[in-house]
Specification:
With 202 residues, the protein is an alpha/beta fold. It contains five helices and eleven strands, in the order βαββααβαβββββββα.
């Protein structure tokens, strides 16, 4: 029997504070499970120390500069990989590249490479399974997905960039800078992944 106890999603954040502010704003706008009588509270926590990984439900990793992100991730790498089955990870832009095979967080069965650029590139994108309509995706850096494994789902493709968003189990990666897309449909999609992994009865 369900009660009206407030359920909490603990979201960890790794990346530059300027980008994380945009991520938090987008996540705060999400109305999870509109017909669900259980109130949902989303708690945000910047991650600086491995011990903070222990009690989060989801981890968002973002940056536009791969070397800078690696410096943030390196001391957290073992703790993240140790908990990869218990949390949902979303890598954005350089964060997606970090999740590719043979990279710092080799969680996804896909080769992912990040190419730093000094300016934005754009492409018209669509997430067919999410009914989000078309939107402008901003690419900085360019993130290239290749050699995807059979257990990997492609969520979004572009004529210019090929695959730009993928999912594997409870993990998500997007090559475009979701922070720059107003009301990007991947934010509610990912939060539902986080909640589902937590095995709530919605």
């Amino acid at each position: 029997m369900q009660t009206n106890t407030i359920q909490t999603l603990q979201i960890g954040l790794i990346g530059p504070p300027t980008l994380l502010r945009y991520d938090i704003l987008q996540l705060q706008e999400v109305q999870l499970y509109e017909q669900n009588p259980i109130p949902v509270h989303i708690s945000f926590r910047p991650i600086y120390h491995p011990i903070q990984i222990a009690d989060i439900d989801g981890l968002l990793v973002t940056d536009w500069h791969y070397p800078s992100l690696c410096r943030r991730l390196y001391p957290l790498q073992k703790s993240i990989l140790h908990r990869q089955e218990q949390l949902s990870l979303w890598g954005i832009a350089a964060g997606a590249a970090a999740m590719g095979r043979n990279n710092l967080l080799p969680i996804l069965n896909c080769t992912i490479v990040s190419h730093t650029r000094s300016q934005f590139n754009t492409a018209i994108l669509e997430l067919p399974g999410l009914n989000s309509g078309r939107f402008v995706g901003y690419f900085v850096p360019d993130v290239v997905f290749s050699e995807p494994g059979p257990n990997l789902g492609i969520l979004c493709q572009s004529q210019t960039y090929g695959t730009v968003a993928i999912r594997q189990g409870n993990h998500l990666a997007s090559g475009f800078a979701a922070e720059l897309t107003p009301r990007c449909a991947l934010y509610p999609y990912w939060l539902e992944m986080v909640a589902s992994l937590k095995e709530w009865k919605i």
